[in-house]
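Let us work through a complete example step by step.
Step 1: write down the sequence.
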Amino acid sequence: MMFITFEGIDGCGKSTQAKLLEERLRAAFPTNIVFVRDPGNTGISESIRALILDNKHTAMTARTELLLYSAARAQLVDTIIAPALQSGAIVVSDRFTDSTIAYQSFGRGLPLEDIRRANVVATGGLIPHLTFFLDVPLAHAKERCASKNADRLENAGDEFFERVIHGYRVLSEAEPERVVCLDATLEVQVLHYRIWTVVETMITKKLPGA
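Step 2: predict the structure and record it as tokens.
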């Protein structure tokens, strides 16, 4: 049983790396692998995701945004992540609670303690065993996303995303035993190899029979 998450701003490559890890895990270990995105994967969570990201909802307040993310996450944890972990699966998630701290606290300016309380309620206190923060300069991330139609959150502006990046860096410095900060400007396969090295070592320790 292991819970691995990927974090970073859009354009950092986290979704690509999360999927590469999922594929590598399925090939390497004869165990159950579950991949999710947060928010998402359940009908309720996907509907909330669409609501949050819709550009027509420009009047959405920061507190509303926080509570919607929390509701979507609660449904995902209760119906997919927690049962999978209880069954002994390895769960890989594209985003989790660190996103809420980085975006809604550092980015939006909501009190950090309010964010932490909301995260506990939404997850029942679930904390990832391992988190990869893919750190990338904002200009680099924007180049990667240049051809994409921006959603409501992606339209928040450069100052917002600089605060989010700073938040992620603060988190990685505060919890180095859990959060691994990696240079997301590296070539895709080079970055994947570094991620795999960390994961393989941890899984070997936790699951010696794998």
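Step 3: interpret the result. The longest strand covers residues 2-7.
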